[in-house]
Amino acid sequence: MIKDKRRSLDHAVWNSYQAAEVVKTDAEDRKPVRALINPNKLKQDYDDKIISVGYEHNFTPGTVFEWLGTKTYWIVYLQDLTELAYFRGDIRKCSYQIAWEDEGGLHSTYAAIRGPIETKINFIQKHGISVDTPNHSLSILMPKNENTLNYFKRYNKFYLRGDDTCWRVEAVDWISTPGILEIEAVEYYANETEDDIEAGIVKGLIEETQDPNGDQVLEIEGETFIKVKMPYSYTFTGH
Questions:
Q1: 237 touches 219 (CB < 8 A)
Q2: How far is CA 5 from CA 9, 51, 85, 94, in A?
Q3: How far apart are CA 189 and CA 196, in angstroms?
Q4: Considering only CA atoms, which of 185, 160, 167 is closest in space to residue 97?
């Protein structure tokens, strides 16, 4: 039965109306893979479909790929483990990219995003003065890997490429689904003097300064705690 189902898939990926060519974003050779993409759920705020592809192509939850026929990007977020003949999983359309910079350099990833769904403005009113507070929220699915795990932690900020709204991570679920990082984020205050909003990089405008003293060792000896109106002397012992 397993072999029969696999033969059916091999025939369908070339002859079915739902046949498609896909390429994983991390593939080095960019060689297209034949797969089936069937409709699942199409909502106003997200688009879910089902992919069927041979196990030899190493699709797993967290895999991001390009659907060449539509020039769109999708993430595999759930696997149907009852299917034994080939890989079958739920996929969701990735409408945005998220970029960030850390000690490892510049990184980016495609992400499936839902929201905002809020219909009211939050505000604080005291003494007749009203101040609005950011309250939009996002639910995000992205691949779980070393780079995303290191950066997307509580209170870290990020931007969606092509959008100037700043977002702050509120909650991170790295446990529930293998290969998937699920994030809840809320609207936050942008820092126009530090963040490269056009490129979508938090603290992207900060330039690293080099120590003008080079390899010199600067040491100063003297009292650490001082009192008012008392004389103190300090000695430079560096080289």
A1: yes
A2: 6, 15, 6, 30
A3: 14
A4: 160
Torsion angles phi and psi, residue 151, rounded to 5: -95, -45
pLDDT digits (tens, 9 = 90+) for 117-151: 888 888 787 877 877 778 899 999 999 999 999 99
What is the three-class DSSP state of 218? coil
Handedness of CA 168, 172, 177, 179 (dihedral sign): positive
Q: What is the 3-state secondary structure (H, E, C) of 35-104?
A: EEEEEEEECCCCEEEEEEECHHHCCCCCCEEEECCCCEEEEEEEECCCCCCCEEEEEEEECEEEEEEECC
Phi and psi of 215, rounded to 5°? Answer: -90, 10
Mean pLDDT of the chain: 89
Cα–Cα distance, 116 to 139 (Å, whole number): 8
- What is the SS3 assignment for 207? coil
Sequence-separated (6 or more) residues with CB below 8 Å from residue 21: 32, 33, 34, 35, 67, 68, 69
Strand partners, 22: 33, 67
Supply the pLDDT for residue 56: 95
Tell me the whole-structure pTM to 2 decimals: 0.80
What length is written for the chain? Answer: 239
Pairing of strands 122-126, 129-133: antiparallel
**pLDDT tens digits for range 76-126:** 999 999 999 999 999 999 999 999 998 889 999 999 999 898 888 887 878
